[in-house]
Amino acid sequence: MNIQDADITSTISLNGKYGRIFDGKSFHDVNRPLRHSNIIPPQNLADDAQSKSSIFVSIPEFRDGKRCARTLHRLFSLAEHPDRIYVGLIEQTDIESKEDDPTCLLEYCALLGYTMKVSEVGIAHKSERQADYDDVMENCPHAMNQIRSVRFHSLGAKGPVYARSFIRKLLGNEGTYFG
Length: 179
Fold this sequence. Notes:
Layout: H1 3-15, E1 20-22, E2 27-29, H2 47-52, E3 55-62, H3 65-78, E4 85-93, H4 104-111, H5 126-139, E5 147-153, H6 160-170
Parallel strand pairs: 3-4, 4-5
Antiparallel strand pairs: 1-2
Helix pairs in contact: 3-4
């Protein structure tokens, strides 16, 4: 074994077989795979800080509103504290498409039973559609206060990294530490 190999070996042994985790105070080696049941919340955070903590989830969506809506539904329905979850959503859809290209946010609300009215005469006036949309968003749980959404036309999409750069701009104070 040469000097380079020894350095790599010592680095691996210092970092544990599965890397290291930070508990808020110090790093610990991880020598077995982490599973959901193995994850223990940091004990050094005050109970007050834990009760105020929140999480920001970023979702770049490209013309897959139905799957995105199911993801949002699972996210909020399975959370122990859904009021602490905030979502940055970039929707990249074909807005003028005659085919089925639903938006994530409207599909999410539809899963919860909040749908826009269908006009009997065809396409409703723009102001009527906007009022209907506003009504759905106000009544749909989490839509107004916890989901920050920006919609782009899918022709302008440049990939998930580009979309995530916009999501970062939607991040509020969820990234701050309250301790």
